[in-house]
Amino acid sequence: MQRFFWPVVLLAAGTYGLLISWGAMTLHQAAGGLPSFDIRFSAYTADQARAYIEALGETGRAFYLGPVRILDTIFPLSFTMALVLGYFRWIGRERSGIRAALVLVALVYLVCDMWENSGVAAMLLDPKAIDPAMVKQIHLVTLAKWFYALFALAAWLWLGLANWRKRG
């Protein structure tokens, strides 16, 4: 299983790079500079969500639901796999409880990211159905996604660095 570690890390990094450099930049331009739902840290209203979708236009919506959605499915799956493989690589059996807890954090991140993606797709597909409760739920899931992703990544980087220093 560990032979997949570096290919999965590279897949996650490459997909994230495409999401940011191509996906996010294209959406940013299409929406007239408005931030996409995935990166909004401050709360937004149902009217603001509809305004963003309207600013995207049909081409921007198609891009969000097409290439961006594909990349935003590949990334969380590959990122989670990279996290889990790293945890198994760097945490031995004697600390399996810590490893299990970190794997759980990574899986919660994955669930949040996929949940967010489905909520964003629902808003893009039917802007008229957007209501305050839907927007609040998606926004809270976005915040949870970022919390768990950053926590899991910080642990992964710390473990990787500690392992590298131990070997050096």
Overview of the molecule:
- The protein has helices at residues 5-30, 46-90, 96-125, 132-167.
- The chain has one domain (2-159).
- α1 (5-30) packs antiparallel against α2.
- The chain is mainly alpha-helical.
- It has 4 helices and no strands.
- The longest helix is centred in the middle third of the chain and has 45 residues, at 46-90.
Total number of domains: 1
Number of helices: 4
- Tell me the helix content: over 70%
Low-confidence runs of at least 5 consecutive residues: none
Going by helix content, strand content and strand pairing, the class is mainly alpha
Tell me the Rg in angstroms: 18 Å
**Ends apart, CA distance between termini:** 24 Å
Strand fraction? under 5%
Number of strands: 0
What is the succession of H and E elements?
HHHH
Mean pLDDT across all amino acids? 96
